[in-house]
């Protein structure tokens, strides 16, 4: 079993992640609201996997997500898994949803802040993975998930997402990339 730390463990995505890790018998430490980015590096040290489901509505997104990514990389944790966002996935080869002409301008700063954090991971030597849930995140537990292209109308429950993340913890199939996750028929 893995030794896992979950940052943002009190949030909508974090709670099911902690529950799923605990249910599967992993040694899991739940860190609630942002402990302070400087502390994150210390808190993640010594763990096999750090899962980041953090969000701070009061912070500048670019500063927050780059600092969080830098702290996780600096911790030396063996693997970093970040809860990503759908608009950073490609809607056609080389084109992310956030870059499309009709993407709402008011949502761009948050999305580009996330992207800046991904860029920090990409420029590191860390073993990282960004798992981005379907556009309709929330809803009913389907009991199955699929990895790959995600359509804007696709949905994914928080519980199905937690299963997908823990499957990746236990059987790593992706590294140094961003993937989409959606519900699938059970």
From TrEMBL:
InterPro entries registered for this protein in UniProt: NAD(P)-bd_dom_sf, Polyketide_Oxido-like
One Gene Ontology molecular-function label: oxidoreductase activity, acting on the CH-NH group of donors, NAD or NADP as acceptor
Name under which the protein is recorded: NAD-binding protein
């Amino acid at each position: 079993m893995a030794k896992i730390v979950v940052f943002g463990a009190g949030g909508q995505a974090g709670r099911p992640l902690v529950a799923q890790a605990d249910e599967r018998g992993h040694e899991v430490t739940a860190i609630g609201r942002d402990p302070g980015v400087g502390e994150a590096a210390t808190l993640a040290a010594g763990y096999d996997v750090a899962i980041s489901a953090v969000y701070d509505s009061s912070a500048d997104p670019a500063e927050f997500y780059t600092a969080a990514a830098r702290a996780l990389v600096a911790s030396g944790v063996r693997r970093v898994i970040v809860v990503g966002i759908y608009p950073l996935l490609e809607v056609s080869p080389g084109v992310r949803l956030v870059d499309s002409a009709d993407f709402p301008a008011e949502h761009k700063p948050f999305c580009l802040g996330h992207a800046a954090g991904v860029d920090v991971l990409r420029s590191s030597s860390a073993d990282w993975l960004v798992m981005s849930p379907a556009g309709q995140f929330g809803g009913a537990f389907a009991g199955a998930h699929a990895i790959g292209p995600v359509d804007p109308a696709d949905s994914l429950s928080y519980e199905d997402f937690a299963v997908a993340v823990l499957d990746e913890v236990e059987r790593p199939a992706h590294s140094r990339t961003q993937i989409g996750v959606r519900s699938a028929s059970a």
